[in-house]
Amino acid sequence: MIKLDKKRSRLLQKLEQHADFVRGSLTDVCATCNRAKCICEKKTDGRTYRLTYKDAQQKTKTVYVPKRHRQRLLKKIANYKSTRKIIEDLNSVNVEILKQSMRDE
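Request: output the structure for the sequence above.
Response:
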């Protein structure tokens, strides 16, 4: 049981390290405004980025993301994926601890 408690403590520490996360996906969209003689028609890089996610009511939401925030947001999305894995591992450890405590009674 001590071994499992230590493993749970390590997982909780990992979870704290990945606390800065965002759930969703980042897409790049090449768009123009369709106005005649607009500068966006002449630009070669008309890419914009959007974060798409579901809110608590499962409604899809979209947020514009400036190019300068793209890398930071990708890191936050990666942290979310890591957090999900850590939570699954933590759940497994907690179930094992529960099983052992029921055996010991």
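DSSP finds three helices and three strands in the chain.
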